[in-house]
Amino acid sequence: MVAISDYEVLEKLYEGRRSLVCRAQNTTMQQSFILKLMQAEYPSLEELGRYRLEYDIINRLETDGVVQAYELIPHQNGLVRVLEDFGGESLQALLQTQRFALVEFLELAIVLTDILGRIHAANVIHKDINPANILLNPQSRQVKLIDFGNSTVLSRANPSTQMCWKGRYLICLLSRPDG
Prior knowledge:
This protein has 179 residues and is α+β, with helices and mostly antiparallel strands. Helices cover 24% and strands 35% of the residues. It has two domains: 7-84, Phosphorylase Kinase, domain 1; 89-174, Orthogonal Bundle (Transferase(Phosphotransferase), domain 1), CATH 1.10.510.10.
């Protein structure tokens, strides 16, 4: 398993082409965190920049509906993002083991709509809302969004957007004022 100073990795949560996500215990604070590591052995400057930008976007969003980023630490040739661990599981994983009643689904939809409204009010468009990026704590029912890697920060001068459907998920595309 991966060794990162001050953290003891407890379990691997996700491994993809670009990132590895683990639950870890901070050995000094004795607190659980989520670590998101870059997978590339030698990430490009562009990849490092995107990773830093995502960290900055998350920090810009001071809302209950977004998993908070606490630290960005160098690791080998890349970066590790230290994130809040609130005990959430991805909606994608939960849907494989349980069905939601209509009332539960509607409650979740209302909470997500509220979270997206607050994110949009901060002039950020997520652009990748899907069950893998929605976390739900099964005990507390707390909901949070993750993975702002494809996000866009709108300028305050022109925050207009055009909404369209692509597949089953809503994608927000930037539009120019002249159409």
